[in-house]
Design brief:
heterodimer, A: 220 residues, mainly alpha, 6 helices, 0% strand, globular, B: 69 residues, rod-shaped
């Protein structure tokens, strides 16, 4: 990973502030039960998107590590998971708050919720696994293999299984998503930039963590 | 007279009940107060981003010092 250019960081700032302002002020469809909470789409859903993207980046670096055995790739795989977990926690907490006011409870037995919880536990296990090795190469190899497995499990639990049963989430179990009533064209104007903005913010934070770790290693 | 007015009231009530849409914060936006909330959130994020940029600049300084050594 190269140092991110200034233009990347400026784009991040613009996109995030655009999301905050436009996300709160644009006209959204008036729907019962959802009411104004439909705006959470720009914050809750995009948090999960950021997490999935960061986990994907980690997955890519794990594959790279297995091919090159370069410790930098192993480090990046670890950092992308750590920052991704922060966004996952944000997605889960915001989702719980939203669920309480639209579905009536902080946690409902919904396959997508349970799937997301299992996926996050799988990534927690990645951290535990990493700490259980003394040898750097052994740690790198085993945790890279586990990370690839965890990413596939995450896709399964979050994107595939909820679609096969009934789920309260749009786009699952026959509910429409990103079409028809729940995402009109004005909302798309904020939703896509918002997704990119939160993903960029995650990448920026990861880059800073990476630079910090670089300095730490040079100190040794 | 009383009968007429009461039926009229009932009809009016019925019309307003039908005309009611899902409740949105339209009133809040008309009174302009939603902008206050937007302002508060934007301020918080300005502070957060300022801190992020500050950390980035500091990190760059330390990196420079390390390179000069």
């Amino acid at each position: 990973m190269q140092r991110l250019p200034l233009s990347f960081k400026i784009t991040t700032i613009i996109l995030v502030f655009y999301t905050l302002i436009a996300g709160l002020l644009i006209d959204v469809p008036a729907l019962n039960i959802l009411n104004e909470t439909i705006r959470n789409l720009f914050f809750h859903v995009t948090s999960w998107f950021a997490m999935v993207f960061l986990f994907f980046a980690s997955f890519v670096y794990s594959i790279k590590y297995l091919r090159t055995a370069n410790e930098r790739d192993d480090l990046l795989a670890r950092l992308f998971v750590q920052v991704g977990m922060v966004f996952g926690a944000a997605g889960m907490l915001t989702g719980m708050l939203w669920a309480n006011y639209t579905w009536g409870s902080y946690w409902v037995p919904d396959p997508k919720l349970n799937g997301a919880a299992i996926a996050m536990l799988a990534y927690l296990a990645y951290g535990v696994l990493r700490n259980s090795f003394q040898d750097n190469i052994q740690r790198g190899k085993v945790s890279a293999v586990y990370n690839i497995f965890a990413f596939v499990m995450m896709l399964l639990f979050v994107f595939i299984l909820p679609r096969m049963t009934d789920s309260l989430h749009p786009g699952n179990g026959g509910n429409p998503a990103f079409s028809g009533y729940d995402l009109d064209n004005t909302m798309r104007l904020v939703f896509y930039p918002a997704s990119i903005g939160w993903i960029f913010l995650g990448v920026w934070i990861t880059e800073m963590r990476f630079r910090m770790e670089g300095l730490k290693q040079r100190k040794k | 007279m009383k009968k007429i007015s009461s039926t009229l009231a009932l009809v009016l009530l019925f019309i307003t009940a039908i005309g009611q849409q899902a409740e949105m914060a339209d009133q809040m936006r008309e009174s302009g107060k939603i902008y206050v909330v937007v302002g508060v959130i934007v301020l918080i994020f300005i502070v957060l981003f300022a801190y992020l940029i500050y950390m980035d600049v500091r990190l760059r300084k330390i990196e420079k010092e390390e390179n000069e050594r």
